[in-house]
Design brief:
Blueprint: E1 6-11, E2 15-19, E3 22-27, E4 33-39, E5 42-46, E6 52-57, E7 60-64, E8 71-78, E9 86-92, E10 95-101, E11 104-110, H1 113-124, H2 131-147
Antiparallel strand pairs: 1-4, 1-8, 2-3, 2-7, 4-5, 5-6, 7-10, 8-9, 10-11
Helix pairs in contact: 1-2
């Protein structure tokens, strides 16, 4: 998610927020939190009641305290610039890094390769396809991902979450058959 001034997030279990290795805050689960760009390299975080609970220089990393927890990003504009652009709420595994690039927030999902593929494979093809087709897609997606790591390093991340890299819709797109 790029070029945002405000991002709304929630998490199902407590999270911790770090700037590099330094713990900034431990936050409870529940409600929708608002991350804002305050100008320059400064971020702020408001709790679900709208009260600012954290402010400081970026980047910040939001780390769920539990490996099976997810983070929801609200009102993401997906397929921007196309006739089928829309707003979606998406749920992600792993950590989120909020960085400032070009005077706006870039939100980066940091996830291991296998968790990434759990979403990419059923996002790229029907999860009800024959198992052999899903296996081929997984090999192709893994190969593409490893080959293109760092492709967007100048923007702070490795791959886009859309068809320009690989369709990645997060944990909500995962399917038990894929």
């Amino acid at each position: 998610l790029e070029k945002m001034q405000l991002i709304r997030l929630s998490w199902g279990r407590p999270v911790k927020i770090y700037r590099r290795e330094q713990l900034l805050a431990g936050l409870p689960a529940g409600g929708i939190w608002t991350l804002r760009h305050k100008g320059g390299g400064i971020l702020s975080l408001e709790n679900p009641d709208g009260r600012q609970v954290l402010s400081g220089s970026a980047p910040w990393t939001i780390v769920p305290e539990s490996d099976d927890s997810t983070i929801v990003v609200y009102d993401m504009e997906v397929n921007k610039g196309t006739f089928y652009a829309q707003l979606e709420h998406r749920q992600y595994r792993g950590r989120m890094e909020a960085a400032i690039y070009n005077q706006s927030i870039t939100l980066i999902n940091i996830v291991d390769l296998e968790s990434y593929l759990l979403s990419v494979v059923p996002s790229e093809m029907y999860a009800t396809m024959p198992p052999a087709a899903l296996q081929v897609q997984a090999v192709a997606a893994r190969t593409y991902t490893l080959r293109n790591m760092g492709r967007y390093a100048s923007r702070g991340f490795d791959l886009l979450g859309n068809p320009l890299s690989a369709e990645y819709r997060g944990a909500g797109a995962e399917h038990p058959q894929a």
